[in-house]
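New here. Invent one.

***
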Amino acid sequence: MYLLGSVAQCTGKAGPPGEMLDVSVDATGALSGKGTAVGYSKDLTVSVSGTTCADSFTGLPVPFALVAPWASPASFVDGVSGIVVTPATRLLAATKPTDPSLTAAYALVGVSVPAGTLATNAGPVSALRSAIAATRRTGVRMLFADAALASLATVASAATTSACGSATAAATAVFNALAALTTANGSVDLFRADLASEIVTAAATACGKDAPASAASDAATLYGKVVSELNAPADATRAAEFVSVPLEAAALAARVLAVVQTRGVAAAANWAAELDAVSISRAAISSTLAVSPVLPSTAVNLRLNVRAAGPLSQCPVSYKDFTSPTSPRSPTTSDAGVVSMSQVTVGIVSMDWMDCVCPEPLHGHGPR
């Protein structure tokens, strides 16, 4: 069960309409329980939510129910333990698919998932742990698609809750509107900035009301900020960095969704500051990606001592933090050859040695 990271402590239902039985997600993110099913049909789904149902990466409650077609192999009998649920699978379920696979779910959002990309019964984060760059690249695209889709659904649902009567009804209308787009076009381009206003209008109309013009406009403005962060293929250098450092990709996805969930359309006015200030679960992200040692839950202070035969002063230092957008930072070493920085997690430090001032008796610039 995944929103971005795994979700835990959820309750839900599985089976066909009118015959659904209870399922649950435990503290480890494992789905268990049984539904009513004899073979696969388009109406079979598993759905989980709940006030205690939280995403491990953001640390926040899931903003809408997570749903997937129930495509249990015969070996699962009536059990649901092998089903993978993500934001993309909720979109797939809304299309009433003939192919209920995870590959089909991500094809709807423009991501091709080659065979062998994911571990058995696992979501996109499993691809981020791969030693194969091409697999990690697919994992980043899947994760960013889920983050964009979850952000879009959150933004559009908030904009249409009054029209639809409840957040649950609004989310259903939003995913149905997205499903209609995929049915008409084969897939949906999540990185089209005007997509949010289109979905808000369609969802409100489906609920029998018109969305206020300001709601559609505000949703479009906020979602434009989301797109600017998550449309990695648009920037080849940035995309390559995410593949090299999946931790950076996962942290960014978590920050974006956390800002959307906690700040809503107000975040658009000061997006960079909101992205910097929001809290995410660094320890859970690093643990999930098998980063060792696991990152502390809070940022720390860093002190660098830059030396040759003695301290090197006036050295321009560049520091890029992989889990915080406040980077790169560019401090300069003191006369004692020291740089101090606060709110540091994990990153990379570089400096131009030729601009450093050497200690006595090594006069002049640049180390000798």
About this structure: The longest strand covers residues 338-344.
